[in-house]
Design a protein that fits this description.
Length: 220
């Protein structure tokens, strides 16, 4: 049977219903965020659970997130960390960062999350001078899609063997899909996908969950 728009919507709804259970705080977080002026573009609950599970399958000592928004995905990642693990999350919009910080406290994970404020392409090079190469267990990208290849160039050396590169929107977003070949975000996402997929030190796949989640594991 062919995949139709209706069938794809149903599949997404089914996945969220079956695999997207969440506590009351997470369930209401994005509604509260939208009421506070944030865009409704966070990952879905099933993707959040995937982030938590994947993080828990690493050492869980150190994670980096690019694009905090309201803190929804960061909370899922933090819940997958080891007891002494920490997450550094980067956000350039002060309104978003302030909202997220309050959510971290409500979720009981503020002690393991450090917020960095500023543009990712300014903050990531700074982190690369602070963090030892091969020491990051998880990197999650969910910010400006046109910058994904640049993020990759910076974070790649930081990822430990056995660590993960994760990225949202690698097959599409609200304004484009992977078949829109002239869209700048599509062009950058495609370049990023191919960079990770062809890297001899990584094994990677794009899971067609929501708008596409890339999962790459550093093998050596």
């Amino acid at each position: 049977m062919d995949m139709t728009d209706e069938r794809w919507r149903y599949t997404g709804e089914y996945s969220r219903e079956v695999f997207g259970r969440q506590d009351a705080h997470l369930a209401g977080l994005m509604s509260e965020a939208v009421a506070g002026g944030l865009p409704d573009i966070a990952v879905s609950a099933d993707v959040g659970r995937l982030l938590m599970i994947l993080t828990s399958m690493t050492r869980g000592k150190l994670a980096i997130e690019v694009g905090t928004l309201g803190g929804y995905s960061a909370i899922w990642i933090a819940r997958g960390l080891a007891g002494d693990g920490r997450l550094i999350t980067i956000e350039r919009e002060p309104l978003y960062a302030d909202f997220a910080q309050a959510q971290f406290a409500r979720a009981g994970v503020a002690d393991r999350i450090e917020g960095r404020r500023g543009a990712a392409l300014d903050i990531l090079p700074q982190l690369a001078t602070e963090i030892e190469a091969g020491s990051v267990d998880v990197v999650f990208l969910d910010a400006d899609k046109t910058e994904y290849p640049d993020y990759w160039a910076i974070v790649r050396p930081l990822i430990v063997a056995g660590g993960l590169i994760l990225a949202d929107n690698v097959l599409g977003a609200g304004s484009w899909w992977i078949d829109n070949e002239d869209d700048p975000s599509r062009i950058a996402a495609d370049r990023f996908n191919r960079l990770v997929a062809s890297d001899p030190d990584f094994e990677a796949v794009a899971a067609p969950l929501r708008q596409g989640v890339l999962i790459g594991r550093r093998m050596k």
